[in-house]
Amino acid sequence: MAMLRREFLGFGALAAGGALLGTRVSLAHADTGTSRFVLVIMRGALDGLAAVPPLGDRAYPELRREFALRAPGESGGALPLDGFFGLHPALSFLQQCYAARELIVLQALATPYRERSHFDGQDVLENGSPRPHALQTGWLNRALAAAPRPAAREAGVALGQNVPLVMRGPAAVTSWSSSKLTVLDDDTLARITDLYAGDPLLATRLADALAANAMAAGAGGESGAMKPQVPAPGARGTARYAEVVRAAAGFLRREDGPKVAVFDTNGWDTHANEGGAQGQLASRLGELDAGLATLHQELGTAWKDSAVLLITEFGRTAAINGTRGTDHGTATVAFLLGGAVAGGRVITDWPGLSSRALYQGRDLAATLDLRSVLKGLLSEHLAVPAHALERDVFPDSAAARPLRGLVHT
Amino acid sequence: MRETFASVIAANRFGLGARPGELALIGGDAREWLRAQLRAPPPVLGAADLRPSSQILAQALELRHEIQAQRKQAVTVGSAGSDAADPAQKRLPQFLRPIYAAEVTARLQHAVATERPFLERLTQFWSNHFAVSIDKQFLAGLAGSFEREAIRPHVLGSFTDMLLAVETHPAMQLYLDNYLSVGPNSLAAQRRARRQAPLIGINENLAREILELHTLGVGGGYTQKDVTSFAEVITGWSIGGEGGRFADGEPGRFVFRPELHEPGAKVVLGRRYPDAGFDQGVAVLRDLAAERAAAHFIATKLTRHFIQDDPPPAVVARVADVFTASGGNLPRVYAALLDLHEAWLQPLAKYKTPADYVVSSFRGLAVPVEADHAPLAPFELLGQRTWSPGAPAGWPDRSADWDGASGLMKRIQWADALGARLGNRREALQLAPQLLGANLSEATRQSVAHAASATQALTLLLASPEFMRR
What we know:
The structure holds 2 protein chains of 2 kinds. Chain A is of the alpha/beta class. Chain A contains 11 helices and 11 strands. In chain B, the strands form 2 sheets. Chain B has a two-stranded antiparallel ribbon with strand order 1-2. A two-stranded antiparallel ribbon of chain B has the order 3-4. Among the domains of chain B are: 178-290, no CATH class; 354-463, no CATH class. By secondary structure, chain B is mainly alpha-helical. The interface between A and B is large, with 64 and 59 residues.
């Protein structure tokens, strides 16, 4: 069967069977003291074939029917990537990153999860094991616990009231979200701190919250970046993620701040009336793209040391369903961007969209294990030791060999 | 069981937080206090401004048709502006928002005032089990009436009846897209194929979530084939007045559309269902409700909610056995929960959700809920806007999902603001034992007693470790 393989540019040959063998050992570690990492979780299962359409695949137009994107240059057409894949027209900032060699697109990728439940899918995406609910902590937290000790008290920050599973675990992390509530007076705070002395959980949480607020106040003093200045929650439009990315950048810019930030995006579960070049998904992608452009701008000089990874629990059906949407699928796309990223390429072992190539006759098949990407990235960007990655961060993942060279080292 | 803790466990764990005087009222027989709440029929939320779903939805659909017609006209006369400038864009939210506000207010007023808080907690448990979320169009106007129509009447009935009421409710049909789903060999699809019109077909969203989230649970033994087949079974389950091929039927009500229904017998979970139109789906739902996996799944969620984050398998099995043996008779299932020794062991096993925190604060301080006093605000500020879990799985129910640093700080800040609002009109030291009973620690008592002001004393009481949990 003729299968089009997109090359892993710059990594030499593919191993037989398409497995990823990034055996080259990187000796030059990044200066992890300045490396920043932002993880964006896209909850609800992003349609990877809509975001990064395989314009060169002959089966694509028929599967996507009226939503198939036209070639770059045509009205409402996709943005150019590598000639075979295009980029959804709402992702103009990402396209600029690609042109500036600061974006890697990873296509036909999946976690080890092969069922179609959002909630188990997200659990696997975050817990880092091959099975849902196998671990109560997240891979990013365990990676931070194994990484060289950070300067900050908290290694990471979750933008939101609570910490998502991916960031829960032994390493100290905090959460932060803007508040319309009045700050407590110092005396009351001191009394509550005393009151929590016998309660380890609340004592830790309170200390973390105070540390985050202090940092947020500091950042706000510099540029006003973390002051809530954005419309109420649920507001639509390109400002949807402006507040959260400003806050993330505010923390990451600080020398004494956490070097890792995570936040959620949602609205990707497009079962009906998904749209094509325009429509429901296009608006969501546009909001995300605008948020990432703001992140780039707000990170300032820290952008050059940053890697931003966008991941989702699984993909969606290759074909449009009966209600002009897509149902739960398997493989999808991930984006890795930032000044630290060795970008300007699409990494995929493209399985094709012919009916025989589809997983269970309906989904894009997975040829790249997300854990390969994460292992490569965590080791080269955050200096997480290889043995910890194999043993603690991604247990039972030996088959997923690290994909190296994703960032400049 | 340690009787000293029983009343506070009953009021906090099974109830919605003690109101002043409630612990004394519970007295020595906490289980009887809870059982008694299950005896009379569930109350009806009676505010005059609450309307039925069918009316709200019919109006919303009508409004949408008007907006679409207006737009079309604007396009033909060449005056189409941008979406943002289009005043029609705002008309739907303007219609839906007051309905949502009235529903949340009525629900909160009831939760704060009720003398049957166990029943209300159970109602909210089921409402979250069968979650809809207001971030989808129309649902802001329907989430409240959905709870009143499909959940409340069945909380003391059978699981099967609740399941049937939920899945045939227009709100659920809308939320999980099933109203648009069309059998690939249905009359409607065949007609379209002859005209070579764009393909129409099934949408498997509702079928999957019924299996995964409403009945069997994710490990419940179904396959992708079962999902697809079940989705075909419930093609034709729809709502009236949607326009286009969905125009007929009474607007805003559930309708069965035979022309969209996939003909023929179907196999779900190894059982064959002959085609009986609408009743084919009812038969599948009845069988799903009777599956052992459903009993296990519901028992797991109930024991997680009422006992601890990770309930021991033996505890789950005891509740599941009663669920199965009673055919999903819910009062008997609740009685089994109350009979669990484990339910009465750890008085502070669960970290409150933000909604629990707000409601228990209002109950504990006897705060009057007035419609004009922004009763929705605390839920939004603390991160749990009512009926907005964002996904059909509902809000998560483990402590770690809610115990974030930022979330804690917001609770304390909100408690401080509430204390400031009530000022000297509440005596925190007197309230402390009434709210916390045997849970009241010496550290908290001392802290409240030595507060610098009455306001600060209230803040410290509500911020105390024992008030954060249930």
